[in-house]
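Predicting holo structure, flavin mononucleotide bound.
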Amino acid sequence: MTNDTADPGKRKLIKMSAGLLAGAALASPAAVLAGNAPMKVLLVNGSPNEKGCTYTGLMEIDQTLRKEGIATELFQIGRKPISGCVACYECRKTKSGRCVIADRVNECLEAAEKADGFIFGTPVHFAAAGGAITSFMDRLFFSARDEALYLKPAAAIVSARRGGTTSAFDQLNKYFTIREMPVISSRYWNMIHGRKPEDVKKDVEGLQTLRILARNMAWFLRCKAAGAQAGVALPEKENPLRTDFIRS
Ligand SMILES: Cc1cc2nc3c(=O)[nH]c(=O)nc-3n(C[C@H](O)[C@H](O)[C@H](O)COP(=O)(O)O)c2cc1C
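Done. Tokens:
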């Protein structure tokens, strides 16, 4: 036993980081590295079209991740109306990790707790992310428990007929960076073009961008698992300081 692991405080920290880094509910880093327990990426389709353009892009990522030995789970936000956040702050008071509005958001929160990484896809609507996925992500990212998202890698992909891709892409990336999630990048901004899935299949550059993104995600996940196994501790935490820009 090394000096590090002889210290009970450090042992606890290492155990915690190993669990969190590998996805607490899933598997030990050793099992992950041995290939006995694949890590899982949650693919969220934020389009009302179940098998449309955004889905087509997500499937390119799905296939690439599977080739890399990473499991995937597809989550469709669907077509039922999704309420925006009603700003009741109930999730913050109870720390339940769930939204008071019982719908697909809570189902996704449950899936998120078991996932190791995330890809959120959206169609571009009026040069922004779609209204439903925006409401969905507002509530998901506001009510999620820390362990559902903290230090789990994430990326956004956007699908447009023609314009508004980079503004929608910027919009989604902001959810990740407020929850301490490493943002995985590709060789271009993660966008595909088309009105129908057949169009997307012709966007060879867009699809290549998504395959590169998926391989970078897989590499990052393996590095995390290896780091956890080697005993790399989580960063020191600080209590939030909220100034709200109010001055007396
Ligand atoms: C309400 C609405 C607004 C749209 N706004 C844009 C837009 O601003 N720019 C654009 O290029 N395409 C726009 N589109 C087209 C879609 O973004 C595009 O076809 C996308 O690939 C559809 O993805 P999906 O099949 O996953 O829903 C819009 C479509 C709808 C329904």
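The CA atoms of residues 99 and 143 lie 6 Å apart.
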